[in-house]
Description:
CATH topology: Aminopeptidase
CATH architecture: 3-Layer(aba) Sandwich
Oligomer: single chain
Number of domains: 1
Distance between the termini: 37 Å
Mean pLDDT: 90
Amino acid sequence: MREQGVSSEMEWDGLDEACHHAVALSATGDAIGCGRISPEGYIGRIAVLSEWRGKRVGSSLLELLLDYARSQHYAQVELGAQIQAVPFYLRFNFAEVGEIFMDANIPHIKMQLRLKNC
């Protein structure tokens, strides 16, 4: 929130209780990243501490959330990607949908991924 200048009023949306969460911990047990998925299959709040970026923490979090979605037999998942994160999500075969929109004064685009359920 501090890094991107997002106020607590904009960040805390009251949906956490209904969501499934993933938390990445360091070897010493410190939280270094997080993410969530809603019961409707909306992935969000993926965040990784700056010193841990580029070390597969974000990828691991997203893989965990996608595994959860598959275990719940979701047909697809969606997210609102910050524009600079689009290449990250493209590596997981997400597709851009629609136009760029602003969320918390940051440009985003909706992305979707169809899931192959077992």
